[in-house]
Design goal:
about 90 residues; mainly beta; four-stranded antiparallel sheet; 4 strands
Length: about 90
């Protein structure tokens, strides 16, 4: 989501690492800023969001220690500051 306005950032790239994964798992946020990664084993992961801004380039926000539990939906809100600096 946009940190200033709270609006969703559709099309943001989401990367899941850690938790015993051999390779990163990637997905895209939908128009509402939501994403889903089915089939992750119950573990602790690192979730990164990447969003491309014309005046800033590729911006990354990372959250460590995201715990996924068996049979429970994990909700995570990540925000990116998209404001232009003068």
């Amino acid at each position: 989501f946009d940190k200033g306005s709270g609006e969703p950032l559709g099309g943001a790239t989401i990367e899941i690492t850690g938790g015993g994964l051999r390779e990163s798992v990637f997905t895209l946020a939908d128009a509402k800023g939501a994403f889903s990664v089915p089939g992750l084993a119950p573990q602790t992961y690192v979730v990164s969001i990447y969003y491309s801004l014309i005046d800033k380039g590729n911006v990354e926000v990372r959250r460590s220690g995201v715990e996924v539990k068996q049979g429970v939906e994990t909700t995570l809100r990540l925000e990116i500051d998209t404001a232009t600096r003068d």
